Amino acid sequence: MEIIEYTEEWKEKWDNFVLESNNGTIFHRQKFFDYHPKNRFNFNHLIFLEKGNIVALLPGSRIGDLYESPIGSSYGSIVTKDVKFSEAMEIVYTLTEYSKDVGIKKLLLTSAPRVYEKHPNENLDFAMLWQDFTYDLHYISSAIKLFPDQDIISRFQPTVRRNIRKSLSNTEIRVEINDRYDEFYPILIENKARHDVKPTHSLAELLKLKDLLPDNIKLFMLYYKDEPIAGSCMFICNDQVALCFYNMLRYEFEKMKPIHRIMYEVVKWATESEYTYVDIGVSQDTKAENPMTPSMGLIDFKEKFDAKTVMRNTLKKIL
Predict the structure, then answer these.
(1) Phi and psi of 254, rounded to 5°?
(2) Would you say 313 and 137 are in contact if contact means Cβ atoms under 8 Å apart?
(3) Which pLDDT score, from 0 to 100, does residue 286 have?
(4) In whole angstroms, what is the distance from residue 302 CA to residue 139 CA?
(5) Count of CB atoms within 10 A of residue 91's CB?
(6) Cβ distance 137 to 316 under 8 Å?
(7) Do 20 and 36 contact (CB within 8 A), yes or no?
(8) What is the predicted pLDDT for the residue at 317?
(9) Which H or E run includes 136?
(10) CB < 8 Å & 24+ apart, contacts of 246-255
(11) pLDDT of residue 115
(12) Cβ(45)–Cβ(58) under 8 Å?
């Protein structure tokens, strides 16, 4: 097995491998990385080859003697098919030897939570831990398991159920899937400003992502008397998981609980579209000194929709 650096000629094969993999996501695809301006990151994506065939991929960046994955996306680390244990061991060994050869002294890899896998397989994780990787950080995500034969509203907490039913009976409220990012984004900006942060993507970048991956970005908008008051921008990450990347609402309409209705519509759509989970994102206290500090209020809110904790783990190795 050998490792080579990614070049543009591998783009189609790279993205096809991600789509066919066990644990790849939208955030591992070259088409996703294309939304970044060319000089924003110094990408150094790696391809694992055996007899000329791709057996694994690692998107990331070389920063001095550090190799970090992901860079410029939410999830990274090694992408594989449903590998056997011996192959996982060889992939990790090959990465270690390659890193030594090219002067990498630290590896920092953050994978998607386990729910993103088509087939639960911890061979790669064990192989990394056995070969002297250690856990660096754990982040809390919350994901809703989808059950096609179960009534959706009945799974939510009583107050949420009442709010959804009230919204459904109000003929002046409607939810639609559309491309009105011009209506969505200004409200998102206002929401983020309340917490002294900015959205990860500019409006232009969000529109570029939609253009690059039209089937993987879905916008849910809630209107009251034809006025946009809430929405959710979904990233369809792979065949398993739809991710609520951005939720927003106009706070002057907060008493109407529009996010409750949006969440119902998102879960309903994802269930009918045969996804296995809806990921509602991380729940960390971003203002705390310790980056692992949980946001108790945010976790409690997500649990109202029957969301359970799944972890996003970062593994490191010092060489």
Answers:
(1) -60, -35
(2) yes
(3) 78
(4) 15
(5) 24
(6) no
(7) no
(8) 98
(9) strand 134-145
(10) 246/184, 246/188, 246/199, 248/184, 248/187, 248/188, 248/190, 248/191, 249/187, 249/191, 250/187, 250/190, 251/190, 251/191, 251/194, 253/224, 253/229
(11) 97
(12) yes
Q: Name every residue whose Cβ is closer than 8 Å to that of residue 245 and which is 6 or more positions away in sequence.
A: 200, 233, 234, 235, 281
- Greatest alpha-carbon pair distance for the chain in Å reads 65
Parts of the chain with a pLDDT under 50 = none
Closest Cα to residue 230, out of 252, 255, 217, 247? 247
Q: Which residues pair with 318 in a beta bridge?
A: 106
DSSP conformation class of 34? T
d(CA 71, CA 88): 23
Q: How many separate helices (H) and strands (E) can be counted in the chain?
A: 9, 14
The 10s digit of each residue's pLDDT in 2-60 is 999 999 999 999 999 999 999 999 999 999 999 999 889 999 999 999 999 999 999 99
Q: Are 1 and 48 in contact (CB under 8 A)?
A: yes
Is there a contact between 33 and 59 (Cβ–Cβ < 8 Å)?
A: yes
Residue type at 141 in one-letter notation? S
Q: Which parts of 194-313 fold into alpha helices (H)?
A: 203-212, 258-272, 296-303
Report the alpha-carbon distance of residue 19 to residue 25 in Å, rounded: 8
How much is the pTM?
A: 0.94
Cα–Cα distance, 258 to 1 (Å, whole number): 53
Distance from C-alpha of 141 to C-alpha of 113, rounded to nearest angstrom: 8
Measured CA angle at 21 (ends 17, 25), to 5 deg: 90
Classify each residue of 161-184 as buried b or exposed e, where b means 16 or more C-beta atoms within 10 Å of its C-beta.
Answer: bebbeebeeeeebebeeeeebebb
CA distance 119 to 236: 18
